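RECORD TYPE: inverse folding
INPUT: structure tokens
STRUCTURE:
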């Protein structure tokens, strides 16, 4: 499983938003070699006044996933997310930041059950 939270000041009105969100999810799922149902994507737009002033735009992806992903898989996901964002014309440069947070089974719950107890 991978949960992707993207926070951004990108002008999202320049893209088809459902397609963009799907492309982010597909990139994460493919890079981490997961089945399609093992991804969740949440895209949070931020107005410019809620961001520090900088040249261009920025999107920061926070990825939450189980431990044990190889460095090569992590490289792939960083590149895949970068490529998805850069494939659109945003009208300015875009910095893509990816933060990967691995969590142990005792640190995540689903449906009211600690993942550690699901086995």
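DESIGNED SEQUENCE:
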């Amino acid at each position: 499983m991978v949960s992707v939270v993207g926070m951004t000041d990108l002008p999202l009105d320049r893209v088809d938003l459902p397609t963009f969100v799907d492309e982010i999810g597909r990139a994460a799922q493919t890079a981490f070699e997961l089945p399609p149902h093992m991804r969740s994507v949440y895209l949070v737009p931020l107005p410019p006044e809620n961001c520090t002033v900088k040249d261009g735009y920025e999107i920061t992806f926070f990825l939450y996933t189980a431990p044990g992903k190889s460095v090569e898989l992590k490289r792939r996901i960083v590149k895949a997310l970068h490529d998805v964002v850069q494939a659109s014309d945003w009208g300015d440069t875009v910095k893509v930041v990816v933060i990967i947070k691995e969590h142990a089974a005792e640190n995540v719950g689903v449906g009211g059950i600690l993942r550690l107890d699901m086995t």
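NOTES: Strands lie at 2-8, 39-45, 57-65, 94-102, 109-110, 113-114.
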